[in-house]
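Recall from the previous chapter that SMILES is a line notation for molecules. Here it describes fe (ii) ion.
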Amino acid sequence: MPATPGNEFWRGLKPIAESFKPDALPEVYLPNAPIEDDRYYVPFSETVSSRPLWISPQQNKWCDILMAKSAGLVNRHYHPHEVFAFTLSGKWGYLEHDWIATRGDFVYETPGEGHTLVAYEHEEPMRVFFIVKGPLIWLDEDGKADGAFDVHDYIALCRDHYEKVGLGAAAVDALFR
Ligand SMILES: [Fe+2]
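With both inputs in hand, we obtain:
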């Protein structure tokens, strides 16, 4: 706990001396997850990009901030596993559902769903916190499988972009847990 001034009632409590088990990995702390700096956003489609926050190669899972500055599209795909989303700003939804999500809206997509993600024009960019378990299966016009995207593709995409913009691939690897 940082030594900051204050009179909160819990100030006298002692932090757990050994809070990590010997083989536990360290936590991830990223200030300002939905950061303004565009370098942190990895182009995911032509109009939508992703800031990686946490990546689990073992679980084929990642957390990110999905961002679109204006109208955006992540074309049709199928999820064999679940997806969680929490909307920070902007306006987005799926062509397959009636709802439109804005700031504060939570979404859970059940395993076994295909959808087409769209971002609407809005005064603020779309920024959504996602927890995704891969893979995404890309679907063609007729809903037939047409390629896949899993955590390993995500890692490659992120490393490549972070190298290009000068953040360095190691900044992506630092998110692995
Ligand atoms: Fe999706």
